[in-house]
Amino acid sequence: MTLLLFLAILDGLAYAAQVFMVAVGLTLIFGVLRILNVAHGSFFAIGGYVAATLGTWAAATAAAPVLALPVLLLAAVMVGGVLGPAIERLVLARIYTKEHVLQLLVTFALFMILEDVQKLVWGVQPIFQDGPVRALGQVEVGDIIYTAYQLYLLPGVALATLFGLMWFLRRTLTGRVIVAVTEDREAATAMGIDANRVYLLTFTVGTVLAALGGALASPTTSLVPGVGVNMIVLSFAVVATAGLGQIEGAMLTALLIGLGRSVAVYFAPEFEVVIPYIIMVAVLLIRPHGLFGRPELRRV
Amino acid sequence: MLTLEGVDVAIAGTRVLRGVDLRIDHSGRVALVGRNGAGKTTTLRAIMGLVPLAGGRIAFEGQDLGAVPAHRRTGLAIGYAPEERRLFSSFTVEENLRLPAEVLGLPAAEVARRLDKTYAVLPEIAEFKDRKAGGLSGGQGKMVALGRALMTGTKLVLLDEPFQGLAPALARRYAETLMRLREAEPELAILITESNPDLLKPMVDSAYLIERGEVHPTTL
Lengths: 300, 220
Prior knowledge:
Chain A is mainly α.
């Protein structure tokens, strides 16, 4: 019993770290652009696929163990750096002033297109590349053998992302400019801030984070069509439970949902899929703006 | 220095400004007086490029502002204190003041110099410069919004209804601050909007009346 609970906690932490990487980008993008980006799940999936492809290539070289981890980051930067700016400039920039329903439909359409692009490029057979997990080896925690990748690397990257983002947003001028646009786009423009550039930058950062989430997840799971759907739905649950736009809140909520899910896996497996949504519904019934969200003041 | 010629603005299909002509000379202090909804705020937003012009032309020091995007206008040495303050609530007072100057890419020494100058005109805000802007009272917020406008507005500042909602004692303090600013920065041009003309009498040298989007010169 204690052993199972312990395992559930370790699994939950690793899982929460992955979900956080995707949810934090989603919430950052929503905070600035005010768009709920359904295609965010595609960035996760494509990040995973590109990481697996690059990883397979790296595994064939002599320097395989050294390359295994940098390849994950490279995949994320490639996917985010290409797809992020292209989609923001060519698609989203045209719909910022449109109704939310239309924005949602457009990002949903993007998601469907990218989903088929994945099938065209990588096919429908599961792809699995665990080079990074093997490169880090295993650790013994008490009587349990666990992978160092899930025990240290995933939570470590998630924490580094959280604190890195908080530092960036509070301490750098570019970060403060992003916060200013989030709070009040018109006032920020009147203070000399080019909001369009901030949108482009924020969307690209969010895209890189989702792709990194996918890259980090790829060595622990098989990539199959639909992997992006699961992640985007779960990330929406995290973001809504935390309160839209809440970065620190997304971390705590990812933990809550990640742990809730993995405890369910061990003790009540039939609830695995619904537990995140039960948590979300329970929170939103009591606090409609999320655990950390504030009701928005209406500006006329 | 600043000229508006036949400026038309429509918001959501309704004409809000109709052929507005307005002129501010170098170091001029101009009042724009009118009732709520007359178009005062829209006039200032049009100068800052925050609403598109349906017609007419705005020029600053001979340059047509139509070719200058909104976010470049503070770079022409124009400062703007919007109605309702619009400070960034999660920043401290000093971060709010610094932001527009830092966004312009001014060297650190120049930002510090402007900050000192601003605190010299507004000594009371130096006392709470490390407080979050979200926790300020209405009167304090108005002072900070004025200070923030001064950080970039070395040639012209636009003050939108600065006295609106201030208790009489605070309004007097704010008026004293503007008189102090006049002595400290005699070259600075100022455009102030207000619904109550009496408040502005001692501190402006010309005035316009705005009614239903139409502007005429007037005397206070």
